[in-house]
Amino acid sequence: MAVETREEAVTIKHHSVDYSVVGTRPIRHDGVDKVTGAARYGADVSQPGQIYGAVTRSPHAHARIRSIDTSKAEALPGVHAVITSADLADPGEKVTGGGEATAVPLKHKSGNVMARGKALYHGHAVAAVAAIDAHTAGEAAALIDVDYEVLPPVMDVLEAMKPGATLLHDDLHTDIAGEASAEPSNVAAKFLFEEGDVEAGFAEAAVVVEREFTFATVHQGYIENHNALALWHGDGELTVWCSSQGHFTIRAEVADILDVPISKVKVIPTEIGGGFGGKTTCYLEPLAAALARKAGRPVKMTMARADILKATGPTPGGYVRVKMGVDSDGKLTAGEAYMAFEAGGYPGSVVAAGCMCVFAPYNLTNVKIEGDDVVVNRPKTHAYRAPGATQAEFASETVVDEICEQLGIDVLDFRTLNSAEEGTWRAGGPAYGRIGHKECVEAARGSEHWNSTLEKPAGTYRGRGVASGFWFNIGFTSSAIARLNPDGTVTLLEGSPDIGGTRSSIAMQFAETLGIGFDDVIPMVVDTDSVGYTDVTGGSRVTFATGYAAHEAANDMRKQMIEGMADVWDVAADSITYENATFTANGESATFKEAAHLLNEDTQQIIGKATVTPEKEGNAFAVHIADVEVDVETGKVTVLRYTAIQDAGVAIYPPYVEGQMQGGAVQGIGWAFNEEYFYDDDGRLRNATLLDYRMPTTLDVPMIETIIVEVPHPGSPFGVRGVGEVPIVPPPAALAIAIYDAVGIRYRDLPMSPHRVYAELAARQNGAEA
Amino acid sequence: MHAISYAAPTTVADAVSILAEHGANARMLAGGTDLIVQVREKLRDTTVFVDAKHIPDLMQLSVNADGSATLGAAVACHQIYGDDAFSAQYPALVDACQIIGSTGIQGRASVGGNLCNSGPAGDTIPPLIVHGAVANIAGANGGRTVAVEDFCTGPSQNVLGDGELLVSLTLPKPAAGSGSHYLRFIPRNEMDIAEVGAGAAVTLDGDTIAAARISIGAVAPTPLFVAEAGEALIGQTAGEAAYEIAANIARDAATPINDMRGTIAHRKHLSFVLTQRALRGAVARARGMEVGHGH
Predict the structure, then answer these.
(1) I need a surface site. Which of A317, A384, A659, B204 has the fewest CB within 10 A?
(2) A:236-275 residues touching chain B, CB 8 A cutoff
(3) Contact assessment for residue A709 and residue A648, using Cβ atoms and an 8 Å cutoff
C-alpha cells in the first residue's frame, strides 16, 4: 500500500514576542563537521601506547559466581591485565552520587559494572582483560574460566513478586516510604501517590473502565556504541574520554567505583551518537580505568551491539492496571492505577515517574497510584526518553479512549473538558504553572489531519487514533562560561553533552540576550575541569536550564563589559547603556565588536559565568494523531499518516524541535509495533541483534507532520520548554486506538507485532465461527 | 589470535583440492554477507576462506541455446535482476533477489551462497525450487547434480560433503504460458528476514493450470517443496477456489517453530495467505500482467 508523504510543519504561537535570533533557522554549529565526517565520536579518540580491553560476560541469566580462574587469560601472549570485581573498590554500604549523580547504593552501581558474587542477567560483565589488540583481548576474555552455580532465572515482574519467588538479592528489602520490609524481597520499593478520595470519586462516576496492560522491555537503540578510553598520569590523575550524556556523572561514578578522589578524575566528552537516556551512567569507563591502572598503559574499550542490547540499560517492561471514572457529563471523577516495572538486576526502575505521569494530562482530584520497583534477571533498566511515561500513559490514554467511546463523547472534547491547566495539582505535585495541553488539543482540533476524512476503500481496514502525552521536564544544575574574544566573538563553554542540537539552541539564547549574531557565539562542550558542574543531558532540561545559564552568563558578560568600557572611556559605569549591541555613554559609542577590541587592547579579560538551578519545571504536553491500515490477513499494521502536536514553550531552534518531535514519534512507533526483548526459557536474550530487535527503518514510517504550539514557559527567560522526551509518549496509545478504530479490537499488550495482532483477529474469527 | 588464510583459486579443481585439504575448516566465500558475519559472531569456526569469485564457472550467468539457464554459484543478486533475458524467465527468483537485505547487500550476496548457507528462511531457495533448479556440485570424486528441493538437509546443513562445492545452478526453460512469483512476510518493510516466504510457479493452458510448483520457507528445518500443493492445482481453473486448495495444503505442510520472528500459529496461517498471494502473482504473470516484487 502506498504511504503518501507530506511535508508540513506548522507553528501556532500563543504569544506576541518576536526575537531576532531565537526562532530562526541558521546552519547549526556542529553541522559541517557532522556532515563531512570530521566530528570526533568516542571511538575516534586514541592515545599513544594504548591497548584494548574486552569483557567476559555471563552466559547465564542468574548464577552464583563460585570462582573465577584468570590464569589462562593472563598466560596468553599479548595480555597486559585481567580484572574482576576484586579490582574495583569494595563498595561496602556506601552510596554513590554525592550530589553529582543519582544517589544509589555503590554496591549496585559497581555490581552492575562488574558482577560481584552473582551474575544477575545474561551478558552481565564478570571479568575484563586488556591486550595488545582487540582480537587478543577477545580471545583472552574467552579464556577466563568462571565456575557458576546456575540459579533459576526470574524474568517477569508479576512472577518475581509472588511469595516464594527466587530472590535475586538476599539483602534486598522493600523500601516503603523509607522503611525497610522485614523479609527480603524482589520488590525493591513501593511507591504511593494519593490525592482526594478515590472511593467517593468512583461512587460519583457514571462510567468506570478498568483495564490491564503489559509492555515489553525495549532499548533506546542509539546508533553509537558505548566506548571509553582511560589514561593514568604519573601523579595518579586519571583522564577518561567517552561519549556520555553527562561527563560530570561519569566522573563521580568512576571516582566512587574506583575509590579515587573526584578531583583526580577528568572526563573529556566527545561527540555523542545518540543516548535517549541510555548514556546517563557508566559501563566501560571504570573497567577501562581499572585495566589501565593495572596494565600501566592507556586502555580503550568499545562495546559490540550484541553486548549493548544484553548488558546496557533498556527501559522497563512490566504491567499497568488503570481504572478511571467519569460522570455523565464526561467529567473525570477518579483515577486509580497500579504499575509494576522491571528494575532489572538491580533496583531503580522508572516506576515512580510512571506513577506521576499516568494521569498527568488531566484534572483529576481523586487519585490513587501505586508503583512497585521489581528486580528481575534482565539488565539494569535505565531511562529512555520520558522514562516511565510511555508505559503508563499507553494504559491511561487507551482507557480514556474507551471511556469516550462508552459516553459517545468526542475524544478532543473530552480532553478540553478534562485537561489539566494552570493550578491543577499533579499527582505527586506540584500544581502546574502555565501549561499548554489545552492549546495542543485545540491545535489538533484545527489541524488539517483531524479535519481530513480518512479514506476507507472497500476491503481495507483503516482507523484513526488520538492520544495525549505528558512529561515533567526538569531543571537541575547547569553552568556556562563565556569568554570574549578580541575579534568580538564569544566562546561559550558548557557542560551539557549535545545529544539534540543544544549547542545551537543554547548559543541562540546567549546571542539573543546580548543582541549579537548566531555565528558570533562559538559553543563548546568542555571537560569536567573546564566548566562549572552541570547535570546530565536528560529530562529535556538542557535548552531550558543550560540555556538559562547561558542567558545569565551573557548578562554577566554585559555587566563586565560595561565596567570595562567605563575604564576605557573613563566614565561612570552607570552612565553606559547597552542597546542594539552597542555601548553608549556621553557621546561615546562602541559596538559589541568594537568594545571587544578596545577591552582586549586595554588587557581586560571578560569572562561571563553562571551556574543556575531553575526550579520551575516547564511541563511538556503533546497530542498525536495517527492513521493506520491493518492487513487483517497478516496482522501487519501500516502507519498511513501521523501528526505530532506539542507545546514547545518557545521553539528556540525550530528545526531541532521538529526533529525531536519526529524522532520521538518514530521511536514510539517502534515501541508500539515491533521492539521487544525476547528471552528464552533460560533467560538468555535471543534477539541481541538489530536484525531481530526490530527498530523501524525509514520505510516503516510516513513523514511525521509537526505542529509546534508555543505557550511560553514563564520560568525561562525565553519561554523554553524542553521538547525531547514527550513526543515518544503518545504513539503506542494513539496507534492502539487507531487499530481499534480499524478492526474493533483493543490491543493492550506491547508490542502490537503482526503475530499478536493476528492472534486476536483469529480468536475473534474462531469465536464467531464457534 | 587465530590465523586466517585466504585462497583465491581460479579453477574448480583447485578449489576442490583446497577444500579437500582443509575439510570443515574451509569454506567457500562468495559475497560473504552470511559467512563473514557468522565467523565474527563465532557461529562458525572457519579458518580458510576460499574465494569463489575468481573461478569463471562460478561467475557465469547465461540463458543457454536450449532455453535453460546457468547461474554460477557466486553471481550476486544485482547481476541477476540486471540481466533482462534471465529475469524474464525466472521472475520469482528476481523477486527474491530484490528483497534480500538492502541494495548494498544485493551487490555482494549470491544466490549460490544463500543456498549453501541453507537457512530455513533463505529467500532465494523457494524460488529456485519452484523454478525446478538443479545444483551442479563438484568434488574430489567428480561431479554430481542434486535437485534444489533435496539440497538442504537441516538448518545450516546441506548435502555438500567435505571437499565439495556448489559450482552452478541449472534452471530449466519455463514452458510457454508460465509465470512465477515469490513473496515473504516480514514485520518491517525492509532489512528483515522472512517470517514466512512462499514461491509459486504455474503454467497455464488457457485458464486451466497445466503445471504448478509451490515452495514455502521459514516454516520447517529446510525450505519446503510442497509438491502436493502444486499437483492439486493441475487441471483446475486458475482462480481463488484453486488457490485456496493449494494454500490449505501448504499450511498443513508447514511445521514451524515459535521464536522471536513469529509464532507457530501465525506462520501456519501466513503459509496459507502467502501461498494464495504467490499464486495470484504467478498466474497474473503467466497472463502477461505486471506484478511488483513485494514482501
Answers:
(1) A659
(2) none
(3) yes
For residue A279, the 8-state DSSP code is T
How many Å apart are CA A371 and CA A548, to the nearest integer?
34
| Secondary element (H or E) of residue B13 | helix B12-22
Q: Is residue B294 in a domain?
A: no
* B64: Cα within 13 Å, side-chain hemisphere: 12
* Cα A483 to Cα A469, A560, B182, distances in angstroms: 40, 11, 65
Q: Could you tell me which residues come within 8 angstroms of residue B18 by beta carbon, excluding any fewer than 6 positions away? A: B7, B9, B26, B48, B50
Residue of chain B nearest A760, judged by CA positions: B266
User: Is residue A319 in a domain?
Assistant: no
| A543: DSSP letter | I
**Cα gap B249→B226, rounded to integer Å:** 8
- Would B295 be classed as within a structural domain? no
The answer to whether A300 and A229 are in contact (CB under 8 A) is: yes
- Structural contact between residues A675 and A697, judged by C-beta atoms closer than 8 angstroms: no
Tens-digit pLDDT profile for residues A511-569 = 999 999 999 999 999 999 999 999 999 999 999 999 999 999 999 999 999 999 999 99
Asked if residue A459 is part of any domain, the answer here is yes
Query: In B191-263, which residue ranges form alpha helices assigned H by DSSP?
Result: 227-233, 240-253
**Can you give the residue range of the structural domain that contains A512?**
478-612
Residue in B145, B133, B32 with CA at minimum distance from that of residue B86: B133
Residue B294 pLDDT class (50, 70, 90 cuts): low
Distance CA B282, CA B292 (A): 11
Alpha carbons A721 and A542: distance in angstroms, whole number: 10
How many structural domains compose chain A? 2
Q: Compute CA A372 distance to the chain's CA centroid, rounded to the nearest angstrom.
A: 21
pLDDT tens-digit profile of A660-690? 999 999 999 999 999 999 999 999 999 999 9
Q: Does A634 touch chain B (CB under 8 A)?
A: yes
Place of cell 525550530: A654
Q: What is the edge-to-edge ordering of all strands in the sheet holding A704-710?
A: A9-13, A704-710, A636-647, A620-631, A462-471
Whole-structure pTM value: 0.96
Nearest to B260 among A635, A678, A699 (CB): A678
The whole domain housing B233 covers 178-286
Residue A55 phi/psi, 5-degree rounding, is -115, 135
Q: Please name which of A18, A1, A188 lies closest in space to residue A627, comparing C-alpha atoms.
A: A1
Task: Quote the pLDDT of residue A99.
Answer: 53
**Residue ranges of A 296-325 with Cβ closer than 8 A to chain B:** 306
The answer to whether A759 contacts B263, with C-beta atoms less than 8 Å apart, is yes
Would you state the pLDDT for residue A102?
62
Statement to judge: residues A592 and A642 lie in one domain: no
My answer on whether B251 and B267 are in the same domain is: yes
Of the candidates A635, A687, A758, which has its C-beta nearest B260's C-beta? Answer: A687
CB contact under 8 A, B193 and A694: no
Q: What is the 3-state secondary structure (H, E, C) of A109-133?
A: HHHHHCCCCEECCCCCEEEEEEECC
Residue B295 has pLDDT above 60, yes or no: no
The CA–CA distances, whole Å, from B23 to A332, A393, B19 equal: 73, 58, 6
B65 and B194 together in one domain: no
Cell of A206: 457514571
Which residues in A lie closer than 8 A to residue B265 (C-beta atoms)?
755, 758-759, 762
3-class secondary structure for A558-590? HHHHHHHHHHHHCCCHHHCEEECCEEEECCEEE
> What is the average per-residue pLDDT within A382-398?
97
CA distance B179 to chain A (A): 23
Where are the extended beta strands (E) located within A167-264? Answer: 173-176, 179-184, 187-195, 207-215, 227-232, 238-242
Report whether A501 contacts A653 (CB < 8 A).
Answer: yes
- 3-class DSSP state for residue A487? coil
